[in-house]
Design brief:
This protein is of the alpha+beta class. The chain contains 15 helices and 21 strands.
Length: 424
């Protein structure tokens, strides 16, 4: 039987995982092309250099809820290959993973190089031919005499210009690379327009900036403009997210903000990242409960200055800032606080309003919303419905998850399924 020639474009997590598993199939020869000098660059820097490999969620129906885009398509995919399979695979490769309190899973070494080395070694062991510093100029589909489709992969690199590779199967795992999108378009695919996801919020509030480093867990953040009417009607509003909130010298960050930025990626892009945000600093308490706690403090601690005594579980620095935001005099004693002032404090604690004045960056993740339209991909095999022999894996697809290992899980799952499809 003749060998199946496979070319994988993109030396990231999805490209490597797909190449490894495709190469393990009989009569399959795999060439992995990476445009940069060093493969797995994103794996190296992810999770602050620790690599958040996946998430400790082994129930597909729950797992898909962490994907603003692509969750429905991934439901069946996760029934074939999910986080538990990732844990087992890395364990077989000598890499043990650990679970942190929030469910994120890392190598026990806390070093992303552990993951990089495991993937590199597995690729070598499987016989993957890795080539770096190789740029794909274009792909030309070819139809053979017997009707078989092949691809002419035309390369540009420092050693040779105009070199080409003829292959039977092509796996596109180029992430959010513009060149990857161009290749997909040239082969007949349309894209959902790529826009940033997973970013922080710039807030123009100098007094808030002075609290840089203060965190609240949990807090709830809600987009109160830029939300579409359809999403407002939903029983589960994705434009309201809870979790840890971190104040920075430019505005707001932390898991709550990052999750909201992912779910609202398109809405925020459409309004040029100018929108209104409401923050509930104490979401565990209802408005009446907060008011009762403040009234109790007024009775029990009448002689204390309001700025020096906070009856709620937030830092004193944040409490003083919120009092100032509520326009309450800090030098007043609790006994002298009017009911109107108490209500102003309640309002600020429950729904402080801020103007988002742009997006910041989240250096540990580089995630894009948008990519290959999912209706044009067969999720049983990850093969294109438009161009037979073309497969997709990872972020090149219109799939993105919130922070916590979900984007890597999409890479592992879609790459594994693509490898099975290629082998067939």
């Amino acid at each position: 039987m003749a060998s199946i020639e496979v070319v994988v474009i993109g030396g990231g997590a999805a490209g490597f995982f797909g190449a490894i598993h495709a190469a393990q199939a009989p009569h399959t020869r795999v060439t992995l092309l990476e445009a940069g000098r060093q493969p797995l660059a994103k794996v190296r820097v992810s999770g602050g250099g620790r690599c958040n490999v996946t998430h400790h969620c082994f129930e597909p129906s729950q797992l898909v809820q962490n994907y603003p885009r692509g969750g429905k398509a991934l439901r069946g995919a996760f029934s074939k290959f999910q986080p538990l399979d990732v844990v087992r695979w890395f364990n077989q490769e000598g890499v043990k993973l650990k679970t942190e309190a929030d469910g994120r899973m890392f190598p026990v070494t806390d070093d992303s190089e552990t993951i990089v080395e495991a993937l590199m070694f597995a690729a070598k062991k499987a016989g993957v031919h890795l080539r770096t510093n190789v740029v794909v100029q274009k792909i030309e589909p070819k139809i053979e005499l017997l009707g078989d489709r092949k691809f002419d992969v035309i390369l540009k690199n420092s050693e040779k210009n105009g070199e080409n590779i003829i292959c039977d199967r092509l796996l596109l795992a180029t992430g959010s690379s513009l060149s990857g999108y161009a290749i997909a378009r040239s082969l007949g695919h349309d894209l959902e327009p790529p826009v940033p996801s997973l970013f922080t919020f710039n807030i123009k509030d100098s007094k808030l900036h002075e609290l840089a480093g203060v965190s609240v867990n949990p807090a709830t953040v809600k987009l109160i403009s830029a939300a579409s009417p359809e999403k407002k009607k939903s029983s589960r509003n994705p434009l309201e997210q809870s979790g840890a909130l971190l104040i920075t010298h430019w505005g707001l960050s932390g898991p709550a903000v990052l999750k909201l930025s992912a779910w609202a990626a398109r809405e925020l892009h459409e309004c040029n990242y100018q929108a209104k945000l409401a923050v509930n600093w104490i979401p565990s308490l209802k408005v009446e409960a907060i008011k009762q706690i403040l009234l109790t403090a007024k009775i029990d601690q009448p002689k204390k200055f309001i700025s020096n005594y906070c009856p709620l579980e937030i830092s004193l620095r944040l409490w003083e800032y919120l009092l100032d935001k509520a326009e309450v005099e800090l030098e007043k004693r609790w006994a002298d606080i009017s009911n109107k002032a108490l209500q102003q404090i309640v309002n600020v604690l429950n729904a402080s309003e801020y103007a988002i004045a742009g997006k910041g960056v989240f250096k540990e993740e580089f995630v894009t919303c948008g990519g290959i339209r999912l209706q044009d991909v067969n999720f049983q095999t990850m093969e294109s419905k438009i161009c037979s022999g073309l497969f997709f894996a990872g972020e090149v697809l219109d799939i993105d998850g919130v922070t916590g290992g979900f984007n890597f899980q999409n890479a592992w799952t879609t790459a594994w399924i693509a490898a099975q499809g290629i082998a067939e």
